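queue> pop job 88
queue> type: inverse folding (structure -> sequence)
queue> payload:
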């Protein structure tokens, strides 16, 4: 049988006034949030690795865990800098999410899934 729990979600918001801070917090709730620590009935739970981000959201959050830079280093170690400059850098220059608008190649898939692994802490 399910039980009712009180879950607290706290964030720090910078805004010109309290109402705008509340609006910003609500917008974060409605959108996808990166919150991973919650207080439930007075006890704290960190659920960061319980539900990994999907690939596109991981790309959007490639700054997390320095994933983009680490993926670049891994890519270069496997395929070389010349390959990175030719096959990946153009997508970074056009915005990392532009990778999702192209037919995947094995080297792009390696790069994207390496980011995914680092973002999710694997």
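queue> result:
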């Amino acid at each position: 049988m399910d039980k009712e729990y009180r879950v607290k979600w706290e964030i720090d918001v910078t805004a010109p006034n309290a109402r705008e801070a509340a609006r910003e917090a609500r917008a974060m709730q409605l959108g996808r949030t990166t919150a991973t620590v919650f207080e439930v009935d007075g006890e704290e739970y960190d659920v960061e690795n319980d539900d990994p981000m999907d690939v596109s959201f991981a790309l959007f959050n490639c700054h997390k865990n320095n994933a983009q830079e680490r993926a670049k280093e891994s890519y270069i170690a496997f395929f070389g800098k010349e390959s990175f400059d030719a096959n990946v850098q153009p997508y970074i220059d056009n915005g990392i999410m532009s990778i999702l608008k192209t037919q995947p190649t094995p080297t792009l898939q390696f790069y994207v899934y390496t980011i995914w692994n680092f973002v999710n802490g694997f």
